[in-house]
Amino acid sequence: MSDTTTKSRATDRRAASPARPRRQVRPGEAEETLEVFSSALTVVAIVCVWMLLQLLVLGGFSQARSQHLLYAQFRSELAQATAPTGAVDYNGKTVERGAPVAVISIPRLGLEQVVVQGSTSRELVDGPGHLPSTPLPGQQGVSVVLGRASTYGAPFKAIDTLKVGDAITVQNAEAKVAYRVIGIRRAGDPIPPAPTGTQGRLTLVTAGGSGFLSGIRPRDAVYVDATTGKATGVGQVATSLPADQAMAKDTSVLPALSLYLALLIALVLGVSVARRRLRGSLVWLCAVPIAIALAWVTTDQVVALLPNLM
Amino acid sequence: MSVSFNTPTMRRISEDSIVRRLAAAAVVLGLVLIGLTAMQQRAQAATGTPVATGADGLTATQTLSRSFYPNGGVETTLENKVTVNLDKHSNVQANERIHITWSGAHPTGARAVNPFGYAGMQQEYPVLIMECRGTPSQVTPQTCWTDNWQERTQSASSDPSGDSAVWLDDAKNVAGSDDKRISGLTDAQASALPSSECSYGDDTAAHITPFATASKVYYNCSNQDMAPEETTGTSSTSSTPPQEISAFTNARGNGSADFEVRTDTQNASLGCSQSVACSVVVIPIEGLSCTAATQANCNSTGNYNAGQYYDGSTSGAAAVSSQLWWSPSNWDQRFTFPITIAPPPSVCSLNSASGAPVAFYGSELLSQAALQWTPAYCLNKKRFNWQDNVMSDDGAFALMRSGTGAAAEVSGRRDQDSGIAYAPTAVTGWGVAFDIDTPTGSQQLSLKLNARLLAKLLTESYSGGSVGRQRPGLDKNPYSLNLDPEFQELNPGLDVRHWSEAASTLLAVSTGSDVMQQVTSYIAEDKDAMAFIDGKADPWGMTVNPAYKGLSLPVSTWPLQDTWIPTTTDSCLSANKTPYMPLIDSPLSTMRLVSQAMLYNWPNVNTVCTVDNSTNPATNVIGRVGPQGIGSRFMLGLVDLGDAARYGLTLASLETAPGTYVAPSNTSMSAAVKLAEPGKKYKPFSLDEKTLRKSGTAYPGTMVVYTAAKTRGLSKSIAKKVAQFLQVSSTEGQVAGRGNGQLPNGYLPITKTGVTKELYAAEQAARAAIRAQKEPRTDGSATPSTTATASIAPPVGSKPGAAASVDAPPAQSTPSAAPSATPSTPSTSDVQLAKTAAVSSGLGGGMLPGLFLLALAAIIATLATRVILLMRGIR
Question: What ipTM does this complex have?
Fold first, then answer.
């Protein structure tokens, strides 16, 4: 926000050199519409740039930070043998969404991520998410893990480049399970047969695009299947929400989002009132951090309304 | 004839005639020798060579003898004419148990509670049974499997006056090899002996029996040079118990044992397989024959009386124990029975010529039949490659309906099954297996159970011991089943003094299945049992565990409802705060695992505390109890009849009509099938417990397994394959036998005539409908949507903690995850494998470029308007 403001001021200064004196817009003249239009476009530009910045850059920072904390949490749970072995934890309570359930590593991609419980847009902000209605990664049966392809650190950005036979390792509460990639699926490809006995299949889901700028156009779901012959025992499974499915959106954030938008409006009003009484620099010094914080949390809510694999 | 050579007439005979006569004499001599050796072989045949008996049995008889000087007295020869019988020997499957009986053997003393492996070798006069690689003429001690190096190597002072190295006194030792100070090795082995492990002092004698795999020799001088499958000690907590048994012979000379055969899958070093011949060697230990009366140890007749248990007061006498099984006196008097191993389960997956497998999913009840059926498909070029996968009945049915599985093996009708035909494929059922020993140490072979006893076991109403007794509501109940007066009345003569947590539960399955559905409907049809669950005390005052009070039955998954956590000062239990009673129950995920637990007498009770020193500080971990010792076993498990027959498990009789108890058998299953009511067209028969319980002869655990497949919308090639499966399984698959494609024990053949004729007719009709794929739609377009996402909410309160989690709690292993679940209509465009559904999002694809373009456009437009405003002189 501040960037653009200084930019327009710079333009002002350069434009100030001609002899003609500058004046305020008078109400009712044509220039007033133009100025309102210009300000509106500025706001649109700021919002868009901010969104892009947060999705592609700032989100990556916050995801890395979340991963750091989740890793520490999961490590200590493993050490205490309290890591969840199913949808119910050692205390008999349901494993909360967003709690770490496994660590997945793909040496070929240099990827190591803590998988969290739940796979709605909101959980995927922190890392790859486990579809709750499937066994946990590493367990017998078909486990499904969804991850973002372009935004928030894009952990699963490159999984569609995996080759058959590549290793995927999953550390869950009980053991380290070694998977081998058996193939990559897109729409219309046959689903591999269901695993039986101690076999387990791990299906990684992300989104992929095609053609120009495919990296930032995650349009279609892509599935990477990997199997193991020695999976760990199955715990309980929970029920999935519709928002957990691939490419689903989570509309449960709407109340929170409206609250944050209201706060943003309040901030705008507050700034315009304050500017009449106080020095501009002073007002901006106070308002900018608040604006950035509000913009950040608001965008995090908006992201929940976008497809989860983005 | 040779006489003629010496007669004086010989001189007169010309030289060439001498040559002729010599030749004739040689021929005659040769013939006599051949005749003699043939006679000798025939004589051997009379002693110890196996003869076929029964369907697949073998029997052999030989006279064992021991010449020795009892108590240093006069030379005596002890003789025992021993007959050994095996109940089967061909096409033996992995882990299958052969029932071996014998008579005429010397009674056993110093009896061990655990006769397996090294633990059993202290016994006097046991019957040692082992598996050896090679045909009967090929086996040597070096190809016979033992669990431990201590069973293969003996060392002692070589001083003859001390008489410690008993084996050197064996009268049957071959001079120049067996009597050497270091004996048991071939010359090549002796020169290659690893000096690091196998060095003995000059005053030490040793006998080493290396174990020879097909390619490598393991000397077994110490635990440093053993085959990988051997174990290092006598620890009873190894995952697979020792295989060899030093079995007990009673005072009348009779005994029996169930010997578990291991294939190259379980024991690669031994390496028995379809292509590598193996034998079962039975050595009734008769004792060493001795050369002199002064050899006190060799001439020992044992330190214990016949039948007496080993008490540690003195060790068993080596000369009459199985420790010296390799000594010529013992080894030469062995019985060797050839066995053949069935093709491994992987025979089809390894056979690339058989084509891509066509997967059927479903009931575990079929798995033993499938083991024999599968090779008959993939090894026959005219048939498809049939693959049977065990899965919960519900999951399998959903897979079949979604098109992922060609057909499902289920034992009951499912919802939304229009357009699906059920073809009866096998008659089998469930049973309650028991490993119970009488107070005298012999195995109990029959048991009676009723529905209320099953209800008591499943509802965790026995407290199991002092910890469980603290649970409110269980304080007045018996500790375990054998202390329950109701059980004692039904089964007199069993241990009424001891209790264990294993004896307070029925090891069952945690996953959803039609078997649990039927077990619980058996209980639900019993008034007394339901009254008990509803809270009424039984006549002896026992009441239900409050956590299960009022439970409504039947259920397809047994819930683990007890959430009581003991409050105790016990450091381990207080460190692991988890509900206690489910730790006793700890159901397993498949009935195969239950059978395995029964096979190894190893309860899945997870209440034992061990200290895990690998963490810092050391943590208390709750884990599984050890296997039960033979002679003091008491555990029960829910198994299927196929597994029970394969692994030789003993099964309980169940109460049907009041006071009538029926054991599972082909007769009692026939009686049950007779009561089955045909269902609607192509639908399953109804065989409900209400009807079964009225009959006094029908086994209430009888179940029919159906092959369910679509009658419309299946692709032609798949329909043809399912029909072929039904055709083969209903003809050669119903012939009882042990060969490929035949029906194993534990299943009742479905035949054209007799009680199963209606099942046969139903199979024919269903097969025709599946083959034709022409059943019209009757229910309009109301096809169910979202069929495959059967995500089941967890049962309340079930949760063995992290420690007990490996085979822990129930879970519908939802086979169809999100991607495969999405096909929302079980469509008519059917395929062999379900296809990945298209999931895409225009928003996802367009969002980022859109934002970028919008931002760009807005910035340009802003700049443009600003420039215009500036040009007009506006600030």
Answer: 0.84
Alpha-carbon distance B609 to nearest alpha carbon in chain A (angstroms): 15
Residue B461 lies in a domain: yes
DSSP at A54: I
Task: Indicate the number of domains in chain B.
Answer: 5
Q: Which residues are CB-contacts of A242 (< 8 A; sequence separation ≥ 6)?
A: A248
pLDDT mean across residues, chain B: 83
| Partner residue opposite A38 with nearest CB, options B792, B798, B865 | B865
Domain shared by B171 and B297, yes or no: yes
Question: 0.80 cut: is pTM over it?
Answer: no
Tell me the torsion sign for CA atoms B61, B62, B63, B64: negative
What are B197-243's pLDDT values in tens digits? 788 888 889 999 999 998 889 998 888 888 888 886 544 445 677 89
Contact call for B874 and A52, based on CB within 8 A: no
Residues on chain A touching B819 (C-beta within 8 angstroms): 144, 185, 191, 203, 205, 221, 223, 246
Are B578 and A11 a contacting pair at CB < 8 A? no
Chain A contact set for B858 (CB, 8 A): 41-42, 44-45, 48
Q: How many CB atoms lie within 10 A of CB B135?
A: 12
- Residue of chain B whose alpha carbon sits nearest to that of A194: B815
> CA–CA separation, A48 vs B850, rounded Å?
9
B870: closest CA of chain A, how far (Å): 7
Whether B581 and B639 share a structural domain:
yes
Here the tokens at position B194 are: 């690893």
Whether residue B415 is found in the same domain as residue B309: no
Domains of chain A: 57-244 (2.40.260.10)
B809 neighbors B751 (Cβ within 8 angstroms): no
Confidence of residue B17 (pLDDT cuts 50, 70, 90): low
Residue B8 falls inside a structural domain: yes
* Structure tokens, B24: 């004739």
Query: Does any domain span residue B566?
Result: no
Would you call A86 and B361 a contact, using CB atoms and an 8 Å cutoff? Answer: no
Q: What is the pLDDT of residue A36?
A: 86
Question: To the nearest whole angstrom, how far is the Cα of A102 from the nearest Cα of chain B?
Answer: 15
Residue B568 lies in a domain: no
- Same-domain pairing of B738 and B603: no
Chain B positions in Cβ-Cβ contact with residue A234 (cut-off 8 Å): 589, 811, 813
Give the range of the structural domain holding residue B864, as residue numbers without chain letter.
Answer: 841-875
Residue where a domain terminates, one of B777, B804, B831: B804
Same domain, B614 and B685: no
Which of B291-300, B345-354, B489-498, B654-663 is predicted least confidently? Answer: B345-354
Question: What kind and span of H or E run contains B622?
Answer: strand B619-623
Query: Per residue in B771-784, pLDDT tens?
Result: 988 877 754 443 33
B190/B256 same-domain check: yes
